[in-house]
Amino acid sequence: MILFRHHLVPEIQGLRAVAVLAVLIYHIWPNILPGGYVGVDVFFVISGYLITGSLFKEFERTGGIDIPAFYARRVRRLLPAATLVSLTVALAIPLFARAQWADIASSIVASALYVQNWFLAAQAVDYLADDSKGPMNHFWSLSVEEQYYIVWPLVLLPVVHLARRAGVSPRAVFLGFIGLIGIGSLVYSILLTPQNPGVAYFATTTRAWELALGGALAVLHVRGKVVGTGYARQVRAGLGLMGLFAIGGGCWAYSDQTSFPGYAALLPTLGAAAVIVSSGVQSPWSAARILNTRVFQYLGDVSYSLYLWHWPIIVAYVEISGRAIGPRSGALLLLAALILAHVSKTLVEDPFRTARFALRRTLMLGIGSIALTTLAGTAYLMRDLNDPMPTAIAAAPRGAAAMKDPQYDWRSEDPTKVVPRLEKVRADVSSAYAAKCHQTVQATEVLTCDYGDPRSDAKIVMVGNSHATHWFPAFEELARAQPIYFRGLAKSACIFSVEPVYDAELKRPYTECAQWSKNVIDWLSRERPDVVLISHSPGEGKVTPEVLAATWKQLVDMGLDVRHVRSIPRPSFDVGKCIAGHHDWKAKCVPSREKVLKRNNLYFAAEQLKIPILDFSDYFCDAKHCPVIIGDVLVYRDSHHMTATFARTLGRPMEEKLAPLLHFKAADRNSG
């Protein structure tokens, strides 16, 4: 007999072990299991199976569902260990670079409130977000499950009560309702995944079908058999083995380049379902021969704590050591996670799970745990809000102009006296983002970020992506000094090309970018500015200079004055984190000019078309080095974008580059 107490179903315990091992190996040694992230999908099926089965059996037995008691069981089972890990991460925040504190604190709060998956979904479409791997990121899957635990009984109970009054079988209502939600969620996942994989990966709406699959199985699969069918012992045993092979196939065949979840998630989820269907079968060919072994049972028993602890340990190791995980360090991290999981399971999970607390006390304990964790994260956020970012020091910082001073030595810079401060550097971005004039991934409409006087005779347009937007503050400064009208046209992660370019994050050709580029060309043909400046990420390995030149040539053929703003040096490491993590920052965090300032696709495209190139390299680099602090200003907010503060100091150099051309055109127009 299969009951819905997880410790009485050894195959499910073993399946938990398979899931957590897949995730652990993927996080520690991704080259071994490049698709190990499917372990999370196995967890979703298990959760859907156990929780829906529990609710269904309770309804059959009592004619109702005791929702407070259900929530109390979830509190005792899940919250104590999760709270312990969350508070440990909160205490460990000072170990991380100051620039990460606010992000980690926000993740702690989001995890405590069970919205971490939506927090990460928002970041997935915001390339401004910190691309570092936060120690609380893995709580996204727990948030999905907790949202299911909270909402599912509230939705299900009135539906089945109405069905009972109408004389409809509760089983049919459960199945029908689960099927409706599951099919709708699967279709949505299939449609959204190729369009917006970042959101699709984390969204509850695209994962609900995996929980629903387990739920449907729970209603059908009672006492070891599938209702209405007569599975033979060997057939069910074979299903179990096939299920394990399906999960393993996803782990080995999938990778970060797989469009996921969508169709691809069917393989591991159906595999998990097959293993559950096979549970209880005693056969030499059954999955139980593997899953019921002592090792798998133990790992399944500690799987929850193991999942909670492994990721913060990995992130902390990489952050503190500054090294990639190797065979030896990976083994030590795995051992450390197992030890912490065992201690956590023994001293925290089990005592709270078996405690005989009164219902009211249990629910208050849950509320208190959530409040305590939220307070721990909020304390850091309040400190951040009460410590505003300065935009200037005692005197206006020189910034880029310092590089033209023969007496200037960047080695004399003091990281503690720069603007923006290290802990605030990621927030130092162009006002274009607050104004929401930087176009998103999905949209193709041409938005403009406008500075200056629209009546001006000197009209400038810049086209590109975030590597154009980080120049916009320079034009804000220029517009204050000169009678110009600047309009910035930028789209997230978009390489200005009418030919679709493959995007690794989207895992498909970026068709919205190509359409936006066509719309930009039409817009420029109508507006006809005096100068069109092009600046975006080089797209190395994605696009060729010839493809870029073919698009740019359309502008040249219109008679527009097209110019390329040369790409800034690209350190390839997070500058703020590097400075914060190294006392000898001048040796560790200042790259050589030869390594980070190279000709790229855009440069070669401009040369092919004989388009003038505006080169500001000497404001970033001396003969040998490209400093990351110049004239009391941090140059980079990450590894490849300027801070808005430094970009503003390039307003005067930009004026010097453009003034002769614009003054000539203005005079020519006035003379006509």
Task: Describe this structure as you would to a colleague.
With 672 residues, this protein is of the alpha/beta class. It folds into 2 domains: 366 residues, no CATH class; 212 residues, 3-Layer(aba) Sandwich (Rossmann fold), CATH 3.40.50.1110. It is 58% helix and 6% strand. A hairpin with a 2-residue loop joins strand 11 and strand 12. Helix 2 packs across helix 9, helix 2 packs across helix 11 and helix 21 packs across helix 25.
Give me the secondary-structure topology.
Blueprint: H1 10-28, H2 39-62, H3 67-92, H4 98-112, H5 116-124, H6 139-165, H7 170-195, H8 197-202, H9 204-220, E1 221-222, E2 225-226, H10 233-253, H11 266-278, H12 288-291, H13 294-301, H14 303-321, H15 327-353, H16 359-385, H17 431-435, E3 449-452, E4 458-464, H18 466-469, H19 472-481, E5 484-490, E6 502-503, E7 508-509, H20 511-527, E8 531-535, H21 545-557, E9 562-565, H22 575-581, H23 585-588, H24 593-596, H25 601-609, E10 613-614, E11 629-630, E12 633-634, H26 644-648, H27 651-671
Parallel strand pairs: 4-5, 4-8, 8-9, 9-10
Antiparallel strand pairs: 1-2, 3-5, 6-7, 11-12
